[in-house]
Amino acid sequence: MKVSIVTPSYNQARFIGRTLQSVASQNSPDFEIEHVVFDGGSTDDTVEVLKHFGGSVRWVSKPDKGQAHAVNQGICSTNGEIIGWLNSDDIYYPDTIARVITFFAANPHVDVVYGGGDHINVDDHAFERYPSEPWDFQRLKENCFICQPAVFFRRNVVEKHGLLDESLNYCMDYEYWLRIGHAGVQMAYMDEVLAGSRLYSENKTLGARVMVHREINDMLKNKFRKVPDRWIFNYAHAFVEEKMSQKNGRKVFAMKVGLVAVISSLYWNKRVSVSMLSEVKKWAFC
Questions:
Q1: Residues 192-204: tens digit of each pLDDT
Q2: Residue 276 is part of which domain span?
């Protein structure tokens, strides 16, 4: 069996060597791995790191249209039966691919398998477990419990259901799990920790929390015509946290989260105008 690992990258020289090594160390005589990196024209030392790894990775470095576009280019340039997507600041744990191949072989009806993951810091130390859960589509709409670097899928999933949505900047992975889950793709949870998902202040997940949650809510509204209350609250909490410190008073903080959550719910689920949403936010923080 051949496995294709796709890595999108941009200015990640600080971490990409560890990402590449985590894939290179997976080699086994029982399967073939092809690893491709689509780099968006990095201006740091990323290309030098890529050159250092020689023939173990195939790479391209040129401007692209963003992370989703880079992943899509990678998928289209490979031909493995199984596809994995590993960002250039994340890592696989030892024997991850071997365990995934064994799972697919034992479960031929499964098209997508995802395992557990850790949140790791800049030094690769795990500091918390990603909150993964067994597969449940309705639950997935309320909470993204799938750790992206711990996901592997058969190529026929892409052939039937398309590539990532390149209009999305933050939640392209979540949208894809929802899309294929809604289509009835057979997905399974593998209760083993497979990958480290790096979480640090500069990355997109923590560095732009309000924009991340806004995009998630817009995506959910477009896809299902309603945004679950949990995502509304997550957006409100991120918004208020950005505007004020909880040190200003827990009661005041909680009150403002509640206020923003109510008006945000009206905006996404009851068609309140953008201008009204903006006015309430201004009033709450004047």
A1: 999 999 998 776 6
A2: 208-284
